[in-house]
What we know:
Helix content is 37%, strand content 14%.
Amino acid sequence: MSTPSEATAPPRYLFVTGRLAEFALRSVLDELAATAGFQAEIAVLPISVAALMPPKWIARHLDLPPGIDRVIIPGLCKGDLAPLEAKTGGVPVERGPDDLRDLPRHFGRGARQAADLTRFDIAILAEINHAPQLTLDELVKQSLAFRAEGADFIDLGCDPGGPWTGVADAVKALRDQGLRVSIDSFDPVEVNAGVQAGAELVLSVNGTNRQQAADWGVEVVAIPDKVGTLDGLEATIDYLETRQVPFRIDPIVEPIGFGFAASLGRYLETRRRYPQAEIMMGIGNLTELTDADSAGLNTLLIGFCQELGIRSVLTTAVINWARSSVREIDLARRLMHHAVTERSLPKHVEPRLVLLRDPRVPRFGLQTLAELARRVKDPNWRIYAEDGQIIAFNHEKFLTSSDPFELFKQMGVEEPSHAFYLGYEMMKAKTALTLNKAYRQDQALDWGFLTEPEISHRNPGSKREPADGT
Length: 470
């Protein structure tokens, strides 16, 4: 029978590392263990760079102390864990984060429990502008790309001066791909042809064309007769309801400087007048016409839509700063659904929407890095970026500078491929300092959902080893 003290003793976790990372790991665990509720022990194996240890090698060199409840190895230690699990005799083995500075988040310090972001109730209509000017192959390719990014409808934007004689073929080609299609036109000939070919939503109707809506047999989007007002909207809605035509209402959001605030007020008024109606917002009017990266604008507008019960949005992805709008809206609608339904702030929930700067920037501190440098016995350069400085060191030099060119000059590297590698890494480090992002040698900078995985150049036999992660 266990004593009371044994019954309440915190679990004992064994952290496996190499010689170089021992000091930095201890400094992290000294604070983390107390706040996360475990006892930390460290096993230092006979290797400099912990990230280079395969689990099979760890199993040969690890002596497991008695009473350990869990073994944590560096996240960069790849390979089958089975040999190590056999060595521990049933004690669970897990990979930690790639960088030991992320251990607090790994143990839930500074991070919330993962939210359920699978649910959403806002549909995305992705508009293809000037659709008549594209070939069928181009239309299909762009539509499939939009669907992969999260679009629920493909909206075919028709040009003035129609009718577009190829609209039926275009709609059929998209329908053959299993895509839902809306047609964006006031030309009755285009609309009729598109609806007959399988389009299931028409943008838009008002006092000028609502008479045809009863003949189309599909849902329509009702808009005011005059932009900047709600004039004529009530008459159009009454007309559609009398003829049992399904509809969504779009009071029309206007660009900043041309009535943006007032247009949001019209959405509020429309919801007040029609509490059960389906409403749509064309948010591309903001993202395409504002000199700002689209992710923040899309996220804010989706938050407004979620609170007001606006269940569909129309977006474009034409101008370069808004090219990823469909993907941004897909992430944002999940985040805002969670925030509104759970009455929880949309913060520290969806890091993939944080693109320019990182949610957090962990640091070692100059003193810890200097101690780490003191333990280095080989000529391989380790690079860090903290507090406005790039830090580079090996067994001979410990250098700091805010200027990567000056730093490279002091490093004295002449071998071309090594020089290229170090220049590439230091440019990443400088970018990270400029934008206050986290830099980790030999790893891609984090650009949220736009991050491109980086092929590692880590090679224990070359001069391209990264800084030790754990």
